[in-house]
Structure formats: C-alpha cells, structure tokens
Amino acid sequence: MGDQGRTIAAAGAFSVHYGEGMLKGVNPHNAARFAAPGGIPINSNHPVFVYGHLAIYAANMANLLAIAPLAATPAGWENLFKNGVECRDDKLATIYPSLETVSKNYLGGYRHILDAVANASDETLNKPNPMGGRMTEMLPTIGAAVNFLLTGHPMSHLGQLSAWRRAMGLGSAF
What we know:
CATH topology: Four Helix Bundle (Hemerythrin (Met), subunit A)
Mean pLDDT: 96
CATH architecture: Up-down Bundle
Largest sheet: none
Radius of gyration: 16 Å
Helix content: 55-70%
Order of helices and strands: HHHHHHHHH
C-alpha cells in the first residue's frame, strides 16, 4: 500500500459520493429523457446515459490495476455508452437500462476500484499506462490514468447531470 493510492482513493471517494448525491430527487421514469424547459428539448446527457457511461469505465480501471472487476460490463452497454456515442432521448423507455441498474453498476464498480487503488503500491501506480495513444500521452502512468478515471472524468459528466437537474426543475443535490 502506498501514499499515492490512498490519495487517489480519497479524491475518488469524493467523486463517488457526489455521483450518489446527484441521484437525489431524480424521477426514474424520466431519467432517460432530455430536459425540456419551456417545452424545448435540450440535447444533452441525461442521468441514465451519464451513469451508464461512467459504469463502463470501472472494468477499464480494474484492468489497469490488474484486478478482477466487481462485475463484467453488461452486454450491449459498450454500444450504448462508450466514448463518442450520442445520448438519445428515450421517450418510450426502450433504449436504455433503468436508472437503478446503471447507477448501481456505477456505484458498485467505482467503490470496488476505490478499495483496490487505496491498497495499490506506489510501484504499481507508477508503471506506464498501457492504454496507448493519446490517453498514455496525457496520462503516462497507471496512477495518473486511474486518478483521472476516478475523479476528473466522472466530475465532468456529473456536471452535465447537475445542469440536467436544474433544467428539470430540481434543486441542488447538496
């Protein structure tokens, strides 16, 4: 266990706590819908998409840390939620899994990673990031990649969720 892992886990725990809090007051029946203040839909990421997108990265982090993921990424989720896929307004509730399913997958997977990274050695976290390409250029070590995937990446998407909440007439989650 190293200092670096405990530091990453502390910041990651804040991010997970924020993600859990953002569920407050969200109606599961419209969680896969675009916000439409004044009747005009806003094409931006809704809660189901945000949590589903984040959930698929738990397996990536487990791979970086050379541990088993808490659970396999559910079939079809990569095509629904991977980087570059457009979020869709699920008017008929036929495109996406439920809010409960995606949020449980996200929270469970990330808590599993928090435990693993808190106990990771500095030696492990200082190894080169094997992701390749731009991700390795920007985040050269496993520790840097896991830190980003646990903190910066979720917080940027949870910011989208915060804006969705306000457009849906929900107040602050905190």
